[in-house]
Specification:
single chain; about 260 residues; alpha+beta; Arc Repressor Mutant, subunit A; three-stranded antiparallel beta sheet; 9 helices
Length: about 260
């Protein structure tokens, strides 16, 4: 029998397959059991569709079910061999996809690299007017919302060390580079938990970010990039709420 032909180049992904992978990545990454409504909320999957997928995954041994809660099953645990950063990236992927799906704006997950951040997961919105982030792209902490979220997590001594040693480029007229102004900005981020950039790296682009922690230390951040033309108070509030929930799911009490 001849092997099946590969899908044609550019073929759209199968929605049920993508949702199945998102469920597996989410549950495996949490390290705890999750209720169906938690999974549905995190991944924006309709409950009717989710019930069928969960039943199938339990039957195949990829998930186990106890009192309406789902956890990694034996088949999935055999596949779960990722550690460190790669495990964190795998856990972030379905949450980034969900953020993009729910808002149709570019969502990304960044890891800290010294005085910079690196994009390791990204999903681009499909509006004609959008901002794209490339995997491997580096950006300075002070001009991206993800970077500001990480700065806000530093203890005072570490933040002052950053201010003393970093070279902060002014990318637009709105970029905050002065030490006192950045202190005030980061203090506001610490208070709210949400970091914002207002056309500070790219003209016309607003950013919203939230730190992701491991063992109480910020190792990265989730962010959304939204064109100013579509940005308003309602969009900002919804984005902040979704980022807060996603960051809580991705954060861990264990050191990375």
């Amino acid at each position: 029998m001849a092997p099946p032909s590969p899908p044609p180049a550019g073929a759209p992904p199968v929605k049920s397959a993508m949702r199945t992978l998102d469920i597996l990545e989410l549950v495996a990454g949490q390290g705890r059991s999750m209720a169906a409504h938690e999974i549905a909320g995190a991944l924006a999957i309709p409950v009717s569709s989710l019930a069928y997928l969960l039943t199938t995954l339990v039957e195949r041994g990829y998930l186990s079910r106890t009192d309406r809660r789902y956890a990694s099953g034996p088949a999935l645990r055999r596949l779960a061999s990722l550690e460190g950063e790669q495990r964190l990236i795998a856990r972030a992927a379905p949450l980034v996809r969900s953020l993009r799906t729910q808002l149709n704006e570019t969502a990304s997950f960044f890891l800290r690299r010294g005085f910079e951040i690196e994009a390791v997961v990204t999903e681009t919105g499909v509006h004609a007017l959008r901002y794209a982030v490339e995997i491997g792209q580096h950006a300075p902490l002070h001009s991206f919302s993800a970077g500001k979220a990480i700065l806000a997590s530093l203890n005072p001594a570490a933040f002052e060390d950053y201010l003393a040693k970093s070279a902060r480029e002014r990318f637009t007229a709105n970029t905050i580079v002065e030490a006192d102004a950045l202190r005030a900005e980061i203090a506001a981020v610490r208070h709210s938990g949400i970091a914002r950039t207002r056309e500070e790296h790219t003209p016309g682009i607003m950013g919203i970010g939230h730190a992701v922690t491991a063992g109480g230390v910020a190792v990265g951040a989730l962010s959304l990039a939204i064109p100013a033309a579509r940005f308003n108070a309602g969009v900002e509030a919804r984005a902040a709420a979704l980022l807060t929930r996603s960051a809580a799911l991705l954060s861990s009490d264990e050191a990375g």
